[in-house]
User: What shape does this take?
Amino acid sequence: MFNRLEIAVLPPGIRWDCQVRFWVDGCEVVEAAVDEGGRGPLAAQVLQADRPSPLAATSGARRLRLGEPVCTGGCCGFLTAVVQRCGGLVVWSDWEGPYQDHLPADFHFDAVQYDAELARALADRWWDIYTDPTWRMPTEVDDTGL
Assistant: This one.
């Protein structure tokens, strides 16, 4: 039985730009592993329009940074997994993270579903407006009612 991946981009907050979150079989991976307030990778880093995404699975195994706790990864450590394509299978394994007792089990994705979900996330660029240097986070309420 394969796991099912869903990729979502969250709007920017006060502390972070748009970040990516991963749901596997309906469970949010980053929050489960690093606790509430942690963050996933920034969308601008892993969903780049002009080059291949680091989330793209290849036959070469590589360790990817998938999240970090609220105190930042430089403090307590990053949530990472080794990502590799093995024929028709994409595997996330060999997890490392700040809380060893919260690390997920290995995930095994159907490569076709994985690639389709990554392609969908790459094509859905609604969050690009927030990378425009003229955009700014609202900091106060407008009294004019406009």
Notes: The helical segments are 29-34, 43-46, 73-76, 111-123. The chain has a mean pLDDT of 85. Strands lie at 5-10, 19-24, 27-28, 62-67, 79-86, 89-96, 107-110. Residues 137 and 143 are 17 Å apart (CA to CA).
